Amino acid sequence: MGIGYASKAERTQARWQSRRALDERQLPSELKSLLVESGSLTERLRANCREHFAVRVLRQARCRPGDFPEHVLSSPSAEALVREVYLECDGHPVVFAQTLVPDTTLSAHPWLAELGGKPLGHALFVRRDVTRLPFEYAELSRDHSLVASAFGALEAGQVPDGKLWARRSQFLVNGMPVSVNEVFFLTAAARVS
Q: In a 10 Å sphere around its CB, with 0-12 CB exposed, 13-18 middle and 19+ buried, how is residue 119 labelled?
């Protein structure tokens, strides 16, 4: 391999970083504002959509947590539920969200499998027994597995150019983990800033 070229493994692994490291990066203000949103991203998007906010469910299925290495879980689980959605403003995907709910959490909180088209964020933020751990942020290459999942249901004209920013966090619902990764589409983010 020549100097200056990253291997495929290096390109597909994310370098997750803290808010402090993110603050040192030069990012478009509309993107950074969404990335660091500490309240409900759902409510922020809903308030800033020109006409209509929607959650489009792409997939909800059983999985092995090991198939999703970018998720942070405080407790191991043999199986989990994965839910992938687009958060859309006025028919345009703005955020791709991938949620991993371990079986142990799902057994105690079966409502997490019954959200349908309802936003997870809204369901979590109205509960008093939910704590969110700090965010981590990463700039993802187009060949990263999380970006590939995010692009899966986009039409040709909707696929953004270049790298994409993502954030991840873990919610604790009465002490039980739910992991959420979100990929932000920059051109769409400008619509809701």
A: buried
Cα dihedral: 91, 30, 115, 137 (round 10) = 130
| Residue 1 domain flag | no
Distance CA 113, CA 135 (A): 23
If pLDDT is split at 50, 70 and 90, which confidence band does 122 have?
confident
Residues 6+ apart with CB under 8 A from 66: none
Q: What is the DSSP string of 162-184?
A: S-EEEEEEEEEETTEEEEEEEEE
Among residues 83, 87, 95, 57, the alpha carbon closest in space to that of 179 is found at 83
Domain count, the chain: 1
Considering the entire predicted model, what is its pTM? 0.84
